[in-house]
């Protein structure tokens, strides 16, 4: 281990890549019974990772060349699959994001999960996730990335299904795993395509080879599209987007960490990881852009009609991921990554705040929370509003800057459709987020509402909000920290930009167009329109939900068909259900099972029965009558003689 | 009229008669007799071959003598067995003895 | 009179026969004493036969050939006889007053078969054959209190007599066409005469006689009834010792044809396939173990023929080895049957239920023997099959071997049924525990060890059988 | 392959491993019936010895030198050219380790057996002797002999200690598998005869080389013959039936080790002796394997019996092995052998987990179970881990195997490869479905009283999990060994 000590960078990196795993093993094997100890182990592990991540970020902030460590994980003939670390600016940034949010969430969970029977298990899985995620982030090669990508999926499965006694939870976990697996098949095939077409899976070499057009364009396009399937699965893009809302079955911190901030962003991260590779194939980029746009719009519409607070944020997550994919697809490398960063911050914030509400009022329905008196919980209320503002891209919050960057990139596109879509998205985003805020802030009692429930609601709120115990503060601090980040992060976007683009992966020229557009007059027009649209959305929400006497019924109520369409997620799930029932279960499974029982097994048993029956038949040759036997014998002789003569 | 073939044909006829007898007669004694017929057909052949073809004249006759002796023994054994059967089944009809089959 | 030493084993059995003849004249003799006498005499006979293994020479004007081959089979026959005598301790199958005659016939039959093994002249063959058959004819209906099976004796007699009549008729033609009764001579001139129908008929009828003895399909018709009908010990004798003689005779006769005639090979192939298939198929549906073993013996005759029809040294060696293996395995099965059905009745498969509790040793012996018959390693039965199949494939009879293997699988089915009865079924009614005396214990242990040992270390025995067949032309 | 003085001088460890099982058999038979506990201890002891020796062989095997090591070669039957010829190379070293591990854990798993203990362990050791024999022998005759030796104890083992429809299952499985040898024995003898009928030594035969047509016939026979045991697609139906009927540890050994015998036979006998035949039939192999992968997964979706599910998953996973072999590339065969190993461990884990559940709840029917995680978290955890391994979750050993196989499969047979890869989705679906229906959901009052698996019983499962994860994290430890044999093998093709 001397070589470790000699190289602190390596030491830090390997700490990130091992400590959480160790903590998981330790927790699962030894400290399942000792809840606090498990939590301590896990949190200290993630804290260590956070420190080393920050250390790496600091030491390597000026490193001209990415630092890379590799060891052969398996060697099969001429194929070498390395395990190692690739420490460049992108990975370091992402590593930091993951570490920070994971740390905060784990602290938060101290409060949120307090008293849960599966406390230790929860922290074990959290560690598993942290380990997989961080090792994936600093993976130097596509295969290592894929491997930990799968492990992240596993962690997500376990955490979504954490309340496994709830049927819907385990169902959601299964759905998430299988749907992402569906995308991963494409990812895997894409990797193989690269392997066959190019032969090296190192990320850096892939990127620069693609840029230098040393890979056949057809191969690049094919593999890029296949790999994008993985993104579609992981980042819940259209058409594989329906698992993410269901994934909200998991504990809220989990949703905050995995299903908004980090894991679902892994798809986007992976895409920006090999961005030059994608950029080398315009077709792939076009597809990406298209998918991103569709996803963004669909998800926003869904968010506009949901009443479950977590559902709303889930949809908004999807749509924001759509934004990122759009940005990348439009060639805005920095815009995508930047939005990923900011979004990680404020979306985690939003979820954690909602978590506090849910924890206090034991309901997910925003109307219930409102009636319960959600506004009396000052801290989360304020923080959530901050988050919402950031989400809708209001100056001077972080969301504003990243959205602007994206808009700039879109504006740079010759075809303005994308820009229009983006602006529309911004509008809807503002609308649905403040729809939620107002619903909690200004609760309305519907005419038909039993006083009893309302009363209890008030009671338990008063009783809850009365004492802000340790648990509450354990949840409150991370929230406030995140809020702080959200407030300030935006102002660093220039530094971040230089940090990333100074010496990142080769930059696509679309980038320059984007930035170029970012400084002209058009830029201000764009800026103005975007902000005004966002404000318009907020006002609209105010008119419908905020102001006195507002019916708190979205305009969509007037178009029940449309509302049903949105509320049912555009019937995407129904389509899948249908396919599953009629194609998989009704079709192949049924067919093959029958074939197995009837045809194959039937044939085997048939042969056996035939044999025994044959015995029964043949045994008639041996009759009891001695003379018949003699006839048989003589006939035999005759046959033999014939045999000879002929 | 005095050629080998005549005797051979005769022997063959005897043999086949015996064979048919064995197969067709339902009476055990009858079957036994038919078997004797078959043997005699064989004997006739031996004698004939011996008479017309054989290099040294003795062999066939010796064989015949042996066969006759054996036939006698066979008859004795056969009769005794049939007798044993008769004691139990009170019949010498072979159709009574068809229990074991399959 | 040096030459008479060649004849020692036969002479000994003559003497043995004489002893029991005298015994049969006494008014009433104690069957225990007879049994002891028999064991001693048979043991000595075995010793004598073994002692004479290395003798070689001709007797009786070259009509009687003593060589390693014949002596080897004589040893097997003597061994079989000894085994059979050993399991005669409770001879309930036979009327106590007839025990002496039983032993007498047993010795005579053994003598006859020993002569059969050595006979190389038509008349000698015929006489030896008849002599052995007659003693069997007599032994089969000797069964005590067995009205159900009384018919089997007469059936056996009728079929046998017909077969022998056919054979002698065929012999007459052979004699006529070839002007000789010496097999060697006949075979020398036979290939040139094969086009003559008379010769064909003669040959086929003669073969029919042999196949009858070996119970090949379709000359097997006597076997099931006789196996079922005869007393257990007699069946054992027929299934072991007399099989040896038949095998030896067929091997010798076929070996004399020295593989010239393709048609003969094809004929043998057809016969072997038919016997295997028929025997195994019919055996599946049997309930009575002895009858089942009768059919399995038909099938095994087929396997043995596979080795023989290769007409190569390796083939004959395989067949000889197979015969030896068959003797041991088959005897093991019958010993178990005799011990389990100690009152001498016919054992049904279901009566074996729970044998593993009633007598673990016997159960294991039975299982090993049956696995051996099914040809499962590492028992000697597998080695036997392996040898004959190897020989067949050396001649390139791939299809034949595949058919053989399929048959082996089929046979495994009914052997497994018996094993299942012995090991899995719970007895429907409480059977008394099997009385196993020390001798049986020793005997079965010896058999088990033999079955395993010869199966695992076949080298010496393969070499032995090769040496035995080396003297064949 | 003639042994040098050094090799001759060394300690015949392989024979010791092989005959320790026979010795165990004899010793167990000599123990009086009223001492079942002693029987268990003795057999555990022998299993431990075997495990230690196999570990020794595994680590003493010199991957740098490669080739055949620990060779023992004695002329057995002169006239036929049969040799008692033991040796290990990179392909069968992992198999030996697998056998030892599964035997050891299997003995531990059956610790609570009451009925006819003596016979059970005796038969188990007979079975294992056969398995060791096949894996060690380099002589066709002995390979076949041990092969059959390992097959027929299955009959009593299933029929006496079995469960559902045990007699039907036992008879079916035994006949089915021995029907396989209907083709194997003629195939072997055919090659032997063609080669001049004077040696069964695998390597001498290999050096002789055979005519293409001979190879085609022989390879087909060997492939189908061994394929029956390997669960190749149309001949797989014994696997679910047999596994359902068999008692826990027998299923462990059978699915864990015995099924590997089939694949090993194809590799060691068929592919070694008939490379051209392999080339000729590889398309068929790949096709059947792919069908097996997808088909097994789909049929598994419909099963309601835990053991049926595992049976079909075995069909699917053995399909991966077959696919790997069919690619005829180093990666593919590496993956195939690796998959043999990890599938063995994985299925053993599966069955031993199910075994505990079945012993306690007396049912294997998924609808009756449910919510078990609440009552027996540990016992369920083992099954769930095995399920993850079956899905091919990374850092479980089977993931690497599947990775290698699929990469080379897509390379060699694009369409079939892609189909096989997409089979992963279905397998994930059906594994998770079973996990969910069996272990998740509301606590089931019926199983309230059931105690969770105590440490003593958990130990075998812990060992198995450990192996899965260990080789999942450090795959090189096994892969280097495997490919030390595979690379020259593929070059010789």
UniProtKB/TrEMBL annotation, chain A:
What's an example GO BP annotation here?
A: electron transport coupled proton transport
Q: Which UniProt keywords apply?
A: Membrane, Transmembrane, Transmembrane helix
Stated membrane topology is:
Multi-pass membrane protein
Coarse class of the protein's main subcellular location: membrane
Q: Where in the cell is it found?
A: Endomembrane system; Membrane
Source superkingdom: Bacteria
Which is one Pfam family of this protein? Proton_antipo_M
Q: Name one GO molecular function term.
A: NADH dehydrogenase (ubiquinone) activity
Q: Which residues form the NADH-Ubiquinone oxidoreductase (complex I) chain 5 N-terminal domain?
A: 73-123
Give me the segments passing through the membrane: 12-30, 37-58, 90-110, 122-139, 145-164, 185-203, 215-233, 254-272, 284-305, 312-334, 340-358, 378-397, 417-434, 472-492, 521-543, 626-645
Q: Which GO terms describe its cellular component?
A: endomembrane system; membrane
User: Taking every annotated instance into account, which residue ranges of this chain make up the domain NADH:quinone oxidoreductase/Mrp antiporter transmembrane?
Assistant: 141-429
Mind telling me which InterPro entries this protein's record contains?
Answer: NADHpl_OxRdtase_5_subgr, ND/Mrp_TM, NU5C-like, Proton_antipo_N
Supply the NCBIfam families for this chain. NDH_I_L
**Protein name per its UniProtKB record:** NADH dehydrogenase subunit L
- Organism for this UniProt entry: Desulfacinum hydrothermale DSM 13146
From TrEMBL, chain B:
- What is the primary gene name for this protein? nuoK
What GO molecular function annotations does the UniProt record carry, in alphabetical order? NADH dehydrogenase (quinone) (non-electrogenic) activity; quinone binding
- Which reaction(s) are listed as its catalytic activity? a quinone + NADH + 5 H(+)(in) = a quinol + NAD(+) + 4 H(+)(out)
**What parts of the sequence cross the membrane?**
6-24, 31-50, 62-86
* Primary role: NDH-1 shuttles electrons from NADH, via FMN and iron-sulfur (Fe-S) centers, to quinones in the respiratory chain. The immediate electron acceptor for the enzyme in this species is believed to be ubiquinone. Couples the redox reaction to proton translocation (for every two electrons transferred, four hydrogen ions are translocated across the cytoplasmic membrane), and thus conserves the redox energy in a proton gradient.
> How is this protein situated with respect to the membrane?
Multi-pass membrane protein
Entry's Gene Ontology BP terms: ATP synthesis coupled electron transport
Q: Where is this protein primarily located?
A: membrane
Tell me what this protein is called. Answer: NADH-quinone oxidoreductase subunit K
The record's subcellular location field reads: Cell membrane; Membrane
Q: What InterPro entries would the database entry show?
A: NADH_UbQ_OxRdtase_chain4L/K, NUOK/Mnh_C1-like
Which species is the source of this protein? Desulfacinum hydrothermale DSM 13146
| Subunit details | NDH-1 is composed of 14 different subunits. Subunits NuoA, H, J, K, L, M, N constitute the membrane sector of the complex.
For this UniProt record, give its keywords in alphabetical order, as a comma-separated list: Cell inner membrane, Cell membrane, Membrane, NAD, Quinone, Translocase, Transmembrane, Transmembrane helix, Transport, Ubiquinone
A cellular component term from Gene Ontology for this protein is: plasma membrane
The family annotation for this protein states: Belongs to the complex I subunit 4L family.
Q: What class of enzyme is it?
A: translocase
- Known EC number: 7.1.1.-
Automatic annotation (TrEMBL), chain C:
For biological process, the GO terms are: ATP synthesis coupled electron transport
Q: What is its main location?
A: membrane
Q: How does it sit in the membrane?
A: Multi-pass membrane protein
> Which EC number(s) does the record attach to this protein?
7.1.1.-
> Which InterPro entries does this one have?
NADH-Q_OxRdtase_suN/2 (IPR010096), ND/Mrp_TM (IPR001750)
GO: which molecular function terms?
Answer: NADH dehydrogenase (quinone) (non-electrogenic) activity; NADH dehydrogenase (ubiquinone) activity; quinone binding
Q: Which residues form the NADH:quinone oxidoreductase/Mrp antiporter transmembrane domain?
A: 119-411
Provide GO CC annotations from the record. endomembrane system; plasma membrane
Give the source's domain of life in one word.
Bacteria
Please name the Pfam families in this protein's record: Proton_antipo_M
Which family is this sequence assigned to? Answer: Belongs to the complex I subunit 2 family.
Q: What is this protein called?
A: NADH-quinone oxidoreductase subunit N
Q: Which organism is it from?
A: Desulfacinum hydrothermale DSM 13146
| Record lineage | Bacteria, Pseudomonadati, Thermodesulfobacteriota, Syntrophobacteria, Syntrophobacterales
TrEMBL record, chain D:
Q: Which residues cross the membrane?
A: 12-31, 43-61, 81-108, 120-138, 144-163, 175-197, 217-236, 279-302, 309-330, 336-358, 379-401, 413-432, 453-474
Tell me what this protein is called. Answer: NADH dehydrogenase subunit M
Instruction: Give the GO biological process terms.
Output: ATP synthesis coupled electron transport; electron transport coupled proton transport
Keyword Transmembrane found: yes
Tell me the Pfam families matching this sequence: Proton_antipo_M (PF00361)
- Gene Ontology cellular component annotations, sorted alphabetically: endomembrane system; membrane
Domain NADH:quinone oxidoreductase/Mrp antiporter transmembrane positions = 137-422
Q: Which UniProt keywords apply?
A: Membrane, Transmembrane, Transmembrane helix
Q: Give the family, as the similarity comment puts it.
A: Belongs to the complex I subunit 4 family.
This protein's species is: Desulfacinum hydrothermale DSM 13146
What's the superkingdom here?
Bacteria
| Membrane topology classification | Multi-pass membrane protein
What's a Gene Ontology MF term here? Answer: NADH dehydrogenase activity
Q: Which NCBIfam families match?
A: NDH_I_M
Where mainly located? membrane
- Tell me where in or outside the cell this protein is found: Endomembrane system; Membrane
